Amino acid sequence: MDIFQVLKKDHQEAKELFKKIKETGPRAAKSREKLFAQLKCDLEAHSYGEENVFYPLLKEHAEMEDLVDEAMEEHEEVADLLGDLEDLDHESDEWNTKLAELKKNVEHHVKEEEGKIFKMAKSILSKEEVQTLAQEFQDSKKQATAS
Ligand SMILES: [Fe+2]
Ligand SMILES: [Fe+2]
Hints:
Elements: H1 3-23, H2 29-59, H3 65-87, H4 93-124, H5 127-146
Helix pairs in contact: 1-2, 1-4, 1-5, 2-3, 2-5, 3-4
The site of one fe (ii) ion (FE2) has 6 residues, from helix 2, helix 3 and helix 4.
């Protein structure tokens, strides 16, 4: 798989986790907690990997700078929301509202990333970079979960 396929796969998995969390009923607090912990861990590792191996390479190209900066800001918003959600009572209305907000943010971010960013990156990165980045991204993600 190349970097684009790897990132897309992660995005898809996050989408499925959101769906699963939504499907957990009021009496499934434990499984909701587990699924959310998984989502948080996945999203954090994904952002970490992108920020450490994917975005820096893109930022070497001046024309990508604004898009990458915007993406980094969106990562920060997602991180804040994940922190809030962890602290809130997972069965409260507030939690559900925040989760919907997180989902909206993630969906927007993924759309921009798979759209604008991937499109420009594809024209900028070499064939070799697209391949090696995939492995570097996976390695970086492992670092994130180990720390
Ligand atoms: Fe991503
Ligand atoms: Fe991202």
